[in-house]
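yo

u said u wanted the structure for the complex thing, so here. seqs first:
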Amino acid sequence: MRSGEVYLSGLVLAGRLVVVAGGGRVAERRVPELVVAGARVHVIAPQLTPGLHKLADDEAIVWMARRVTTADLDGAWFVLALTDDPEANAAVAAQAERQRIFCVRADAAEGGSAWTPATGRAGDLRVGVVTTAGPLAASRARDVAVSALGNDPDRDAPAGWVTLVGGGPGDEGLVTVAGMRAMRAADVVLFDRLAPAACLEKAPAHAELIDVGKVPRGEFTPQEAINALLIDRARAGLRVVRFKGGDSFVFGRGGEEAAACAEAGVPVRVVPGVSSAVAGPALAGIPVTHRGLAQGFSVVSGHVAPGDPRSEVDWAALAGTRTTIVVLMGVANLDSICRALLDAGLDPETPAAVVADAGSESMRVVRGHVGGIAAAAARARIGAPAITVIGRVASLDLGLR
Ligand code: SAH
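structre next:
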């Protein structure tokens, strides 16, 4: 037969007979789409997977519980040879050819007269990809197309708006889908030191990337200057993304930024993020609540030492909550924090753990008890960013990978 490229078309199958030979895993993946297309589907196979069985029970398909024969193709518009027996598939394809019915072969695509594309949806659009480069290449291309088409800049990061995006604890995989979409639509991104840097590459090539990151006790952009930048760029009609670590409203000053924008008449939206307050312990195998161990958790800042006139945290009260205490920004003051808790009556044997660089390759965990955790963290030269977890759950190590 003359060779040529595959000719792409969309089949209208509503009310038309489609014969599927085979009732295994491949059929289970393909048949539901045929049902959605409205086809009259005959599945011919001695056995069905549970999923196909259910479709037959619901009368969405007709099941003929036997091996396929040449007579089964009579009246069909389309045939799928999906058995796990290459000879049976070849026989079905040959019969289809004689009857001039297009036929897909699961075991050897080139042996059929039609190919099944890797398909996807993006809103009202259907995407289908066929390639000679194999099914993996097809599904990758489909994923790229679907995610690009799913990107609607006006919905993801509207022009003239500020979108506050929480980037999670550091691992690119822990940014939300909505956060990633906003990033892909951005004209300007203002980012922090703790925001997952790998995601910045997803911003469009034209986007202005502004590092407003603070190094502890070092150079930083004052909050007023950040607010002014956000307002200025949004007023210029740009899609502004404020990208930071964790969640913007957990010690992220997102509230101040939102208020400043609102006061300036600039519309703001928020894409919540995965906060390190919960994700940090989780990645170390510590659940912040656990049946029988902790019925709640408190998240506090350790930025200001207990006893410092600027401190508003009631450490003595925290010591009595019997819930998990999660301290952020507490590395430098860990010793005085633990001492304040012990002074208020917390049992020195209360388990404690420090999780540094959660979600990145350099993640480290130091475990101990409130009585000795500060010294242990110092010995291990733990530095920011780190989370301290205090409470009975801190002794757990669920052995997660
Ligand atoms: N908005 C962020 C917190 C910002 S405050 C959030 O929701 O996660 C900065 C503090 O967060 C750090 O001092 C540290 O205590 C904690 N932190 C942030 N990212 C961290 C990480 N990857 N590992 C451990 N602690 C982290």
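The longest helix spans residues 135-149. Residues 169-170, 194, 245-247, 250-252, 275-277, 280, 328-329, 355-359, 384-387 surround S-adenosyl-L-homocysteine (CB under 6 Å).
cya
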